[in-house]
């Protein structure tokens, strides 16, 4: 009788060990699934929102990728560039270097409201030459939602690479931003600059 009791106790202990091992394996499987689903969520484009500096020129609103922006400056006094393109409104000095100023509205061929106190200069993140875009107003850095299909309509030009809305904006078409590629925008001006290094 003592042998049968011992045998039963051993079987119960083995059963406990197996169920403990199974429980550990079950916990590990759940953690693995949880980690795998987190990676999928992070990689999802709906979760990772691009950010842009929202600015206005003329009646249009534009988004400039935040990676392309070095700084937003108040308007500066500029020295005109003789025989330069109309959109290149002048130069100013910053940190011992010349910065070319290009009016965004004139560069895109849209109606500009001229110079004003509310204007901003957007210093672009680039080494040589340094360039600032003159805009009527720089509003804010915001999360944006890229538009596709029929929603993706707005101002058209070679420098516009897509369309977006502010993440928290309603579906009003007036809230559409034209997303700019600064390098495409600058391409015609940099190749014809009459000032060396500008």
From TrEMBL:
Gene Ontology BP term (one): signal transduction
The protein, known as: Purine-binding chemotaxis protein CheW
Record domain CheW-like: where: 49-191
Taxonomy, superkingdom: Bacteria
PROSITE patterns in UniProt: CHEW
Organism of origin: Microvirga lupini
Gene Ontology CC: one annotated term: cytosol
Pfam families reported in the protein's UniProt record: CheW
